[in-house]
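Sample A.
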Amino acid sequence: AASGLEQVFLHIDCAFCQYKLQINRALGLNIVSANLFIPNNK
């Protein structure tokens, strides 16, 4: 039972890490595109 719970928690942790990676990647792309547009406005 304990090992089963551990696997469930590991799966949740892994999914959460993937979710965080996707958010960080999206934020990084937004920052890069924003930086590309800022010089054009000056």
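Sample B, a different protein:
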Amino acid sequence: MYKKADSDVNKVRQRVYEIINFVNAVYKPLNTFIALTGLEIWTDSDKIVVTAPAGETLDKFTSWRNDVLMKRQRHDNAHLITGIDFDGATVGLAFIGTLCSGHSTGVIQDHNPLAIAVGATLSHEMGHNLGMNHDSSSCICTDSTCIMAAALSYNIPRQFSSCSVGSLEQYLNSRNPECLLNKPQRIELIQPAVCGNGFLETGEECDCGSVTVTDASYMCRPKHDECDLPEYCTGDSNVCPEDVFVVNGLPCKNGNSYCYNGQCPRREDQCIKMWGANAVVASDWCYSQNKRGLSYAYCKRPTNDQYIGCQTEDIMCGKLFCENGNDDPNYGRFVMINKCKATFYSDRDNDFGQVDTGTKCGEEKVCSQNQCVSLEVAYKATNCSAKCKGHGVCNHKLECTCEPGWLPPDCNRQAGSGLSKSRFYLTPLLYHYQSRIHHTCNYTSSSPRYTLRVVSSISIPNTFPRILVPVTSQLKFLDLIKSLLCIIVPETPHI
């Protein structure tokens, strides 16, 4: 890409700004702001071997990001934009649902002279990182095509479908990706200043996003389920307080599980997530296989090649076993024993096949570090709410979240008026960027709820790439053990 721009760094920067501006416009209706906090242009040589097979390039870029980039630049998500012509009709590749992990990456081919076309591809691959799958025929898309369509067309997509919106909401609620908690500082942003984006950037006296601080009576973040707590504006801050949830161990789903960090984890939901809507939890006999200590049946995995079987009392906290559902899992490879289906992975740090922490494994017991332990051992919070004096509830930090009008830390003192200025929290992705600073900006649009820090790297192509001519091609999947990877390919243009 650097050579395509006549080895002109300023041209590369301008093109990347145009790409990111389009991505931001696409994500804005989802109340998500894409903050470009890093741009590395490889001007002397590529830092990895960039090859035509997109899967190989993605793996190498992911390793480089973890070994080098993460150590010097804080970010949530990284993408490589390259001038290399990927094999076949592939123009982008990314891991699914891996935000805030070591695989929060993607690779993009600079495949079109129009920056917005490349921006659509980047939006698509970032959508995969955020848990979105390809659109199906049942998805509602008001345009001729949407961002997560399985194939690119000559009509550049500019919006997400109903399915994508639902997938993102489900991903944020279920995964609670912690890396999106903090709003970047102005010195971290490398894009030109934009009035009204809620960030005070170089050259701006202010950037209020919206223009006033909301009263303390305003619920800035309602609770989204029985394991959550609502948060209220404090009246003297422009930020909705940090996210907190009900105390871990509170019964949920009619006593079928216990709350854990704002979620109600159940094997039933985990099986559906892994195998699709018709999947169900497998029999106890299937879970007894966890005593064997194999790659698809174990409790502990100290190294990539070492598998330790479960003790009898812990078998429900080892590998997740399901029945029915789709023929292939959404993540990883799988094995079937009779009707018992389980998944396995080569990388223990990205093993999505274990029963989730916090899942109920017996009466008053939950899974913790792949062991079935009592609630008291797991959370040490049995009598936590007693200290809130009847005017608050204990949250997952073992602190009191007080009712409006009562003061922390024990909710035993009434405020003079209005809401307590105490710590009301919720999901780490919701923000209300407002300010009491005298403002000179005339921008009045609403502020983003979510902020995603993105770092982009630009590679030098070994040869000048050609513009792809769209060809008919079926959707391809690379069956890698690490994770499911999605490739988007162009479709035959409509006449």
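Observation for Sample B: The radius of gyration is 24 Å.
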